[in-house]
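Hey team,

Filing this mostly as a record. A colleague (T.K.) asked me to run one chain through the structure pipeline before their review meeting, and I want the input and output archived in the tracker in case anyone asks later how it was produced. No errors, nothing strange. Just documentation.

Input sequence:
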Amino acid sequence: MLLKLAISTAPAAATIFKAVLSKVTSMTLQLTLSFSLCHVSGVSLNMAHKLVQVTLCLWVFTSLLLPSPTAALYRVSLKKQRLNLNRFKAARIAMNGWGMLHNYGSSDGEVIPLKNYMDAQYYGVIAIGSPPQNFTVLFDTGSSNLWVPSSKCYFSIACYFHSKYKSSRSSTYTKIGKPCEINYGSGSISGFFSQDNVEVGGVAVRDQVFVEATREGSFPTFVLAKFDGILGLGFQEISVGNATPVWYNMLNQDVVREDVFSFWLNRDPSANEGGELVFGGVDPKHYKGKHTYVPVTRKGYWQFDMGDFLIGNNSTGVCEGGCAAIVDSGTSLLAGPTAVVTEINHAIGAEGVVSAECKEVVSQYGDLIWQLLVSGVQPDKVCTQIGLCVLNGTRYMSSGIKIVVEKENMEELSARDRLLCTTCQMTVFWIQSQLKQKGTKDTVLNYVNELCQSLPSPMGESVIDCARISLMPDITFIIGDKPFKLTPDQYIVKMGEGLTTVCVSGFMALDVSPPRGPLWILGDVFMGVYHTVFDYGNLEIGFAEAA
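Output structure:
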């Protein structure tokens, strides 16, 4: 990894002052020599040249006192892995399974955020120890720990396919030994904490606590991954064992100029360069125009409040009251509520699974749902009134699209009862959304019946006809009151080349109950289009069109 210099804008006064203080001691001799040089040279020159000499002297002093305009940015060159259909299928299965089990938004520090590392595309190299041992890691804004395989990992297949850290070969290693387990829902890694120096993008981080993994789940995520481990860039609030994240130590040890890091992901499939992760600022060459900044609403993940969500020019209505969104460099997908993803699938012609239960609800209860909504019954009360959401004789209804009840109560419902209740809720949402667009009853019910055929497949891909991409609608996220549009070419994932090319939807279904949801996860599909700045100092996230 190389330490490169990049032209940057003039730093703020506080930054200049800080830089001056840190350099005063080392510059004393240089200033003395400069004064002597200017004095001696000034005496020997004629008056015509003295003005030039004075100007040069001032330039010398200014250069010594002020940070160079080419202030250092620390960069990690990112490599890109092309997806294939089998990996993508496995990724979608993993996302679906983990979404059912993970308590998204937990701050207890013991569960890593819902992850879909199977389809992660961008990764880079770090070094641990003295002399350095190199590891390929996924830089993940959705988690906060650093872990790599340990030389003491003997019984996990995944460890045999990746580089392993050997503490005995490092002179800067410090033993901690505290056991650790990181749960991923459908798997986990376990090991113990150690401490050593870590080099990231040319900058050395001293005494970094990390996890030596001695057991990795045998499921394909880690066995087939191109990366050895994961370097989390989330907040310490979700760090397992409350370990100080690498990024925090960069700030604590004053090795970066600004409390900012930024991602530029290269979406050009033919490019050799996958992108860059920049620590200590932003590279103006990575984006166009200005960034739109939104505040972090909940520390842990890089989470913010998102506004409306549009398919074409039409609002889906699901985020009219605001939705939580998480920027996650650890997944390439865009994940959102099932009801919305179903509408997207329908709009782009994605093949899903035909739901008999969905069609049953529409055919038997569609008219009644319409009448109740038109008469003014609140959407969150409709399914209780028609009897599709009943528990122990007491009618209930969640305030979200997907039903959520206490675990012991949920167990008393049969699988079919739960499915009918959830399907009813989605049907109410779809009809309510169409009512706002003043559609007629027959038109709306026909549309909802069609949506039943576009429900996201829980066990596989949503295949798209590649020839129809130009006919598909744009998808728009409203962030900071500004539209951030994704074109079909940007949200459709292409795999393979030539006659073997397969196109699949980049959207995944993920239902999270209020108050944490509805929730969107903006992965590499979004970050590749919009350069993303993570401003820790101001607790903001910035988006601008990527160069």
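Quick notes for T.K.: The chain has three domains: 74-98+116-265, 284-340+459-546, 356-403+414-452. The two ends are 23 Å apart (CA to CA).
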